[in-house]
Amino acid sequence: MFGLRKWSTPVLRPAGPFIVGGVAVFYLVAKMQDAMINSDEYKNDPRNPAVAAGKKDH
């Protein structure tokens, strides 16, 4: 009764678009965050985490 069955339940195929969408959103948000941190408006702001980490390439 339990164990391997004749028809296994598909998991990755129906969830594939959601996984790809999640990865794309994660990547795009990370790129936007990096662009905003390195913008001229926040380049020398003391609240900028890149300044606090000691990045000198600003």
TrEMBL record:
Q: Can you say what this protein is called?
A: ATP synthase subunit J ATP18
Which regions span the lipid bilayer? Answer: 12-30
Give the species: Phycomyces blakesleeanus (strain ATCC 8743b / DSM 1359 / FGSC 10004 / NBRC 33097 / NRRL 1555)
Annotated GO molecular function terms are:
proton-transporting ATP synthase activity, rotational mechanism
**PANTHER family recorded:** ATP SYNTHASE SUBUNIT J, MITOCHONDRIAL
Q: Record's superkingdom?
A: Eukaryota
Give the gene symbol: ATP18_2
A single Gene Ontology CC annotation of this entry is: proton-transporting ATP synthase complex
Q: Which InterPro entries match?
A: ATP_synth_F0_jsu (IPR006995)
Q: What UniProt keywords apply to this chain's record, in alphabetical order?
A: Membrane, Transmembrane, Transmembrane helix
By its UniProt entry, which Pfam families does this protein fall under? ATP-synt_J (PF04911)
